[in-house]
Every structure is written in C-alpha cells, then in structure tokens.
Design goal:
heterodimer, A: alpha+beta, Thrombin, subunit H, six-stranded antiparallel β-barrel, 12 strands, 21% strand, globular, B: 159 residues, mainly alpha
Chain lengths: 379, 159
C-alpha cells in the first residue's frame, strides 16, 4: 500500500489549496510574526491580549495545588494558629524596633556620604502577588504571578521575596505577568560583592537555585560565604538588595577567570507569594537640591579636583569618570566648572588652585589650551 | 464521525487537554522528561484526520505554545507547521505502519521539531545548548503508542 505514497497529497486538494501551498503560507506568516516580535516589537499589544486569553487555562491548571493549600490551611487546629500568632507578633515587635532605627540611619548615611543626588533609590510601594504557575527546568525558569497591567505592573519590574531578589517581569498581561528568575540561564544581574565592593555580573545557573560569576579574574578577592547584593547598574534593580551567597570558588592556574558559584537567597520553591516593587529615585535622606541657594554646588577640596584645561578636553573626564551609580550628578558639575575656562580667557582657574600655583605666576597671557603644560616647563 | 464541525470541536477538546498537560507544574526532574503533549496531539490529528486538522491546527497550537513559553511569537508555530506539513503529506504511509515503526517516525518528527525550535532560539539570541532539551523527543516517542490509542479511543467513542 505504500506504493501509492507519492499521490498522498492529491485527495486533500480542493479546500484551501494543497498542503504544500498552505504550509508555505503559514510558514511565511510565522516568519513575519517572528520578525515583527523580535526586531520591531510591534506585537506587544497582541501578546498582551493573548496572555489575557490564556490566563484562565493557567489558573485552571494551578487549581489543584491551590485547593490543596487551602484545604491544609482550613484544617489547622486552634493551638497551631495560636502558636503561629504568638510567633508572628514577636517577630513584628523585633522588626518594628529595627525599623525605628532604620529611618534615622538612612538619613545619617545620606549626610555622611554627602552625595546629594547619588543616593540609591528606595522601595516606594509593594504589591504582593500570588504565584499562579511555575516553570522550573534547566532551560526556562519562569513564574506566572496573578498581577498584571491592571494593577500597574510594568515590564522590567523588580520582584523580591522576604529573603532576596527573585527576578524581573518579562511579559505583562492584563491580569498576569511572567517573571524571569535570576537563576534562569538567560538572565544576568549586575551585582556587587558586599565585603569588597567589587562589581561583576551574576548569570543564572539553570538549576533553580544557583548563579555563576563568570567574569571574575582568578586573582579577584572573592571567597566562599561572600554576600552578593545588587549594584544598581543597569537600572532595573536598585542598589543594595541581597541576591546570593558565594558557595564555591575554584581557581585554576591555567584559566584566566575564576569559576565562582553562588546560591540564591530567595526561596522560590517554598514561596507562595512574591513582592512586586516600585522604586522611587529620590532618596528621602538626600538633601533638597536648592539647599545652598542658586544651585551653587560645593567644590570640595580643590587640590583633589582633576585638572580641567579647555573646552575640547572638558568632555574627556566625563567619559573616564568612575562608574558611580548615579550618573546624573556628574555632568552638571563638570559642565559648570569647565565653562569659565574658555569663556574668561583670563587665568585658567584649575591650574591656579593646584600645587604649581606657588612656583609660577598666574599665566595671564597664555591661552587656556596649553595651560597645564606651562607650569611644568617654566622653572 | 458526524459532522466536520462536531469533529473539530472534539479535536479542540483534546488539544485543550494536551495544553493543560503541557503547562501543568511538575517537579524539576520530571519536567525535563515531560513529553511534548501538544506536539503529539497535533501529529496524531495530522496523520489521522489530515482534512480536518493539518497545518492550520499546528500553526494555532504553536502560537498558543509561544504565548506560554516562547521567547518570540511564531517560533513554535513555525516548528509545528513544519511537522504538521510532513505528517499531512505522508499520512497514508505513516498510518499503515505498525506501532513500533510509527514510534520511530514520531521520534524523527520530534527531532525535526526540536531542531527548528533550537535554530530559532539561537537566531533570536536565546541559545540553550543543554543536551537535556532533546530528552523529551525520546519520552515522546515512547509515549506515542498509548497516546495514539487513547486519542483513537476518544475519536471512536465520540463518533
């Protein structure tokens, strides 16, 4: 009977064309859809609607575990509830004592750092979300939570639990949002080693609880037990939230990079709820911007300022400036201190303040362009 | 079978069940072994009812998979359209084979499916090169005889 196999497509013709034609059509549509979704991001709206459409299926799939949890909770005894209540009350008292000091400490820290705008942003609003569906395999580690655009959730929002960072939202539907975990192999989070301040990137390990630090040189100061916190670079996660603890440091003499693994602090397998967090860029401890009047910023010790020479060099220190999390504070300061030099055409202010000022008279006649070379050549 | 519309309704019912099985939360070690239920269902209907199902069904099911677990829309849609097309083209040859040989052919189809998904994953910048991603083709091929029997039972009983 397989001898007639070559004519297999024939009886199907007539409705909607031959299989080959229909396949070409569908394949073309699929490729166009892929292009639009990947390159042009035209399909955010379509994805939004589709995610809303499949949400009932996801809720239905999750109903047995939810029902089981509800059943377990409703059969708890009075003694158990009373014990839990006492424990929670005690914990709340402890936390309130800590929180009392927190505000004062945050303000004091802000004053000590004196960085005005450079203070890290703070959590402004929390929204607890229930986990509807979990995908935890080595290829994809995602959560589906029951909050979506109608609750104000947006794409790229940080998700935490009470122990540490969980991940960020990737697709937001009307009533649900997909969260990519920090342990997903496709996810990378900028972190800082708390003990040393060394910044690096933690990539998901793919096994549900571990992360890898693949970009640390083998002579980097990192050891087992170090705490990793978010560094605030990248703009998705604000600074200072715990991410993971280093568990394993492996240095190989022939490898230029150390192999470091860390264990995520969040417990995604035991959580039933996660926190969606909104962050406010303005830190409450940061002093108001118009405190000194007329926007005049203090210069600090002028001997420690970099030499600022001329207009065309003024852009350079900005590029080589250390990567401070709050970039916005740096440019206005540079611009203001650099602008008088070419405009006045009189003594350039920067070299006059430096150590060379004692041995060389103010270079009144020299153009500001070769001001820094002048004091060194004169004596 | 009674009418085409009624038949399609039953078909969509099995598709929905397969979809639920696909997104059902499972423990990690079991999740890697989970066969692609929706792909098997599409294969079954493409082989046994190429007129009612076929490439369009594959495309729609793939789109649903994309919403659940695809990095880009259209990825699984294309992969499922490809194997639905192969199954529709060769449905008479596949149908006439004994169960064991059918399993082997289904294994080949699942490899093609995973190959397409793998390639698109790579092109769109989500490369997952773990060998574990190919494991479901094996479990799918093993599951094929009972799954086909179950699907044909539902088809026969409801008809």
């Amino acid at each position: 009977m397989t001898a007639f196999g070559t004519a297999a497509g024939r009886p199907l013709q007539g409705r909607g064309g031959s299989p080959g034609f229909r396949f070409t059509l569908y394949a073309l549509v699929a490729v166009v859809v892929m292009y639009l979704d990947q390159r042009a991001h035209y399909l955010e709206r379509v994805r939004y609607l589709l995610q809303g459409a499949v949400y009932p299926v996801q809720v239905a799939v999750n109903s047995p575990p939810t029902a089981w949890r509800w059943l377990k909770e409703s059969f708890q005894t009075r003694e158990q509830l009373r014990a839990e209540n006492a424990r929670l009350r005690e914990r709340q008292r402890d936390l309130e004592l800590l929180a009392m000091r927190y505000d004062a400490l945050a303000r004091e820290n802000g004053e000590l750092r004196g960085l005005r705008d450079a203070l890290p942003s703070v959590a402004d609003r929390w929204l607890p979300a229930e986990i509807v569906n979990v995908q935890l395999n080595s290829l994809r580690q995602r959560l589906l939570v029951n909050r979506g655009a109608t609750n104000g959730v947006f794409k790229g929002q940080a998700v935490l639990d009470d122990r540490g960072l969980i991940g960020q939202t990737t697709h937001v539907g009307p009533w649900s949002a997909e969260v990519i975990l920090i342990t997903d192999p496709e996810h990378a989070v900028p972190v800082r080693i708390e003990r040393t301040g060394l910044r690096t990137i933690a990539v998901g390990g793919g096994d549900g609880s571990s992360l890898a630090l693949p970009y640390l040189p083998s002579n980097a100061d990192v050891r087992s037990g170090d705490l990793l916190v978010t560094s605030g670079l990248g703009g998705v996660f604000p600074e200072g939230y715990p991410v993971a603890r280093v568990t394993e440091v492996h240095r190989d003499a022939v490898q230029p990079l150390a192999q470091v693994r860390a264990l995520a602090l969040s417990h995604i397998d035991s959580d039933a709820e996660v926190m969606l967090v909104w962050f406010r860029p303005g830190h409450p401890a940061a002093p108001a911007p118009s405190l000194n009047g007329a926007g005049d910023l203090p210069r600090g010790n002028s001997a420690m300022q970099p030499l600022e020479v001329s207009a065309h060099r003024a852009a350079a220190p900005e590029a080589t400036a250390p990567a401070v999390p709050a970039v916005p504070s740096a440019p206005p300061r540079r611009a203001r201190s650099a602008s008088p030099a070419p405009a006045a055409a009189a003594p350039a202010p920067a070299p006059a303040d430096t150590v060379h000022a004692t041995e060389s008279p103010p270079p009144a006649a020299t153009p500001p362009a070769d001001a820094p070379a002048q004091p060194q050549g004169e004596p | 079978m009674t009418t085409l519309a009624g038949f399609r309704l039953r078909m969509l019912f099995t598709v929905l069940i397969a979809l639920v099985l696909t997104v059902l939360p499972l423990p990690t070690w079991l999740d890697v072994l989970r066969p692609a239920f929706l792909v098997l269902t599409v294969l079954y209907w493409s082989i046994n009812a190429p007129r009612a199902a076929g490439i369009g069904l594959g495309f729609l099911c793939g789109l649903m998979l994309d919403v659940f677990q695809g990095p880009v829309l259209g990825e699984h849609a294309l992969a499922l359209a490809v194997i639905a097309y192969i199954a529709v083209r060769e449905h008479q040859r596949i149908r006439s084979k004994p169960a064991f040989q059918q399993s082997l052919l289904v294994f080949a189809a699942l490899i093609v499916y995973e190959l397409v998904v793998f390639a698109i994953d790579g092109w769109t910048g989500h490369p997952v090169t773990s060998p574990l991603r190919w494991l479901h083709t094996l479990s799918g091929a093993i599951l094929w005889p009972p799954a086909a029997a179950l699907l044909s039972y539902s088809e026969g009983r409801l008809a």
